[in-house]
Amino acid sequence: MVDDFHFTDELSATRAASALLAAPLVPSSGVFTKVLPPRAHGIYAWWMNQGAVPGLSGLTHPVDPSLELLYIGIASRTSSSLYARLSTHLTKTSRRSTLRLSLASVLAARQGWTASFVSGRPALNPGFENDLTQFIHNSLSLSWIQHSAPRDVEEQMIQRLQPPLNLDGNSAHPAYTYVKTARAAFRATAYS
C-alpha cells in the first residue's frame, strides 16, 4: 500500500516539488487495481520510461533513473479529487483528458493513430483509445501528493520541474514548440 502525503499547512512550490519527487511511484497499470488514489485535492506527476515518447525528455526520477518526468497535473475543483482526475486520465478518452490528447498528438504519426471529432471536439479516433490506454499502462508511472490548494503552486512547480508535456507556464522548455506543433497538427487532421 502506498502512503499518501498529508499536509496541514500550505506548501510552497519548493516543498511541494520536493514532496512530489519523494512520493512513492505506482505503475499506471496498478492504479485502481492495487492502489487507490485519495479522494482529496492534490498534485500528480506522470513519469515515462526513458525513450517511450520520442522527442521528449524530462527530469530523471531521483529514485528510479529509468523514468523521466512527463506531465504534472492538479486536482483542485470542488468536484475533483486525485481519484477522479486519475480516473479520467486512465479510463476516459482524449476528448476529456489533456494528458491523453497531448500523448495522442505526439504519438499519432509513430503509432498510425488518427484524429476525429468526438462530441464536437478534436480527439483521438475512438478506435485507438484502447491502444493509448495500453501505451499508458506499459510506459507510464504515477506519483502524487495531497495538497489543499494545488492551483497556488502549480505554475511554479511546472516552471521548476519542467515536465515536457505541459504547455501552460512552460514555454521555456526545449520541447514546447514540438508539443505545441504536434497538438496543432493532430487537431488539424480531425478537420480533414
Structural notes for this entry:
There is one protein chain. This protein has 192 residues and is α+β, with helices and mostly antiparallel strands. The chain is 38% helix and 18% strand. The protein contains six helices and six strands. The longest helix is centred in the C-terminal third of the chain and has 16 residues, at 176-191. The radius of gyration is 16 Å and the shape is globular.
Segments where pLDDT lies below 50 for 5+ residues?
1-10
What is the average per-residue confidence, as pLDDT, rounded to a whole number? Answer: 91
Order of SSEs, N→C?
A: HEEEHHEEHEHH
Secondary-structure-derived class? alpha+beta
Q: Strand order within the widest sheet?
A: 1-6-2-3
Distance between the termini: 47 Å
From the structure provided, what is the oligomeric state, counting identical versus distinct chains?
A: single chain
Indicate the proportion of strand residues: 15-25%
How can the largest sheet be summarized? 4 strands, antiparallel
Helix content: 25-40%
Q: For the CA atoms, what is the radius of gyration?
A: 16 Å
Shape descriptor reads globular
- What number of structural domains do the residues give? 1
**Total number of beta strands:** 6
Number of helices: 6
